[in-house]
Amino acid sequence: MFSWLSTARRLYSVFVGPPSLATPSSTSPPIKFGILGAAKVASTGLIIPALSHPEVEIHAVAARDPIRAEAFAKKYKLRTFYGGGDAYQKLLDDPEIQAVYVALPGGLHYEWTMKALAANKHVLVEKPSSVSSEQTREMFEFAQKKGLVILEGLQYRFYPAIIRAKEIIDSGELGAIKSIETIITGPQGSLKTDDIRYTWEIGGGIFQDMGTYPVNVLRYFTSSEPTSVLSASYTAHPNDPKVDQAMTTTLAFPGDVVGSIELNFEIPYKFGLIPSLPKMDVTVKAENGEMTVKFFVLPFVYHSINVSVKDGQSGKGAKKRTEKVYSPTSVKGRTLKGEEWWASYRYQLEAFVDKVKGREPDTWLTAEESIANLQTIEKVYEKAGLPPRPKSTFAFSPITDDSIEAKRTA
Ligand SMILES: NC(=O)C1=CN([C@@H]2O[C@H](COP(=O)(O)OP(=O)(O)OC[C@H]3O[C@@H](n4cnc5c(N)ncnc54)[C@H](OP(=O)(O)O)[C@@H]3O)[C@@H](O)[C@H]2O)C=CC1
Ligand SMILES: O=C1OC[C@@H](O)[C@H](O)[C@H]1O
């Protein structure tokens, strides 16, 4: 197949719908999902992936505005909707629902994940898992206590190209890592000025939200935690001096490895006319060569893994190659489940369902992963001289979930 044809097919599958709808499994009953928030991310993040999963049904959505809830349910052909001030809790009280997708701003993730777990639902919570490493720890501890599955939606990690990039590093082909550079930028106007990512009360700050990815890729590729934050500087958003719209930071990792992050979705137009193309790249510089993964955050849209290995004989020249891994079959020497047209969100859903059904997923992210990611984000804010994002004030006792029951019946 021509590559432009498979690209078109993949993008259609990701943003419009899969080539064919799944037939519900006759042996394994579907997991019925409820979505908290009529959020933009919900269609690509869960609703479209669910169409090709034989064990998933999207049952309901809840939105604060009843008209919005109804319109969303109609648009995506969902059976049930809940609207109004108590809509989120009503969805959690729906006994038909077994799993909840928390598609809310980061500052609300703790409260609604805890309430969902208290209602005995498995939880797929969007990134960042919360705005506090301490509260994320509580979320995972509570899920474990309840015997429920919880996963932070760090979708890129489930994609074959990213697994392949890590395989290249781990193979030793590049030698010891010396530094890793990440750059995530987009043109001014990509995010509206009142975007959730720029709103302090609900966990705003571009580093708090989009910083999740570069922090994670540095930790993932080095297989280690930063030992210190060497530098961090930010540009404040005009809305609020505490909210960063851009962040530049360098982190020290064990073995004298330095990781850097440049994050900015407010790149001015060239000559006031031409928007810059979004960049989402990571470059690993190592003893024997280099590897750049282009567009690593959304690798299903497009990616390339550009590898350059020093010539062993002379040490002068370099052997270069480019890999593109849209197929799930060619990584880690084994066949991963998947299709060439799957987005990372579809792989993520596959893993989540496998976990709920008691099967071993191809890829999984642990509690430690989500907690450590936030610990790094917190340290970068501290180094930059910014306060931590406000923790959720939702009162929850990690010992007992009675506090939730008491709150609801009060
Ligand atoms: N994994 C990924 O690739 C992506 C992840 N995300 C993550 O998903 C989450 C949602 O992002 P996105 O869909 O872009 O955001 P949206 O602004 O589209 O949606 C946020 C939802 O939160 C609800 N909400 C509840 N309280 C508030 C409040 N005080 N202010 C604003 N919204 C509120 C709204 O629900 P209601 O309908 O009830 O009004 C709204 O639908 C974030 O955590 C983000 O980081 C986003 C994009 C991609
Ligand atoms: O998580 C995300 O990943 C992709 C981006 O386009 C989006 O804005 C962000 O929230």
- Briefly note the CATH topology name of the largest domain: Dihydrodipicolinate Reductase, domain 2
Bound molecules: NADPH dihydro-nicotinamide-adenine-dinucleotide phosphate, ligand LJPVP2WV
Helix proportion of residues, in percent? 25-40%
Per the principal axes of the C-alpha atoms, what is the gross shape? globular
Task: Label the CATH architecture of the largest domain.
Answer: 2-Layer Sandwich
| Major beta sheet summary | 8 strands, mixed
Q: Would you state the CATH class of the largest domain?
A: Alpha Beta
Task: Indicate the structural class.
Answer: alpha/beta
Neighbour order of strands in the largest sheet? 8-9-10-7-11-12-13-14
Low-confidence region ranges? none
Distinct helical segment count = 12
In total, the number of domains comes to: 2
Order of helices and strands: HEHEHEHEHEHEHEHHEEEEEEEHHH
Distance between the termini: 62 Å
Number of strands: 14
Mean pLDDT: 94
Name the CATH superfamily classification of the largest domain.
Answer: Dihydrodipicolinate Reductase, domain 2
Report the sheet-strand fraction: 25-35%
Rg of Cα set:
21 Å
EC number: 1.1.1.179
InterPro entries: Gfo/Idh/MocA-like_OxRdtase_N (IPR000683), Gfo/Idh/MocA_domain (IPR050984), GFO_IDH_MocA-like_dom (IPR055170), NAD(P)-bd_dom_sf (IPR036291)
Domain Gfo/Idh/MocA-like oxidoreductase N-terminal: 31-151
Organism: Somion occarium
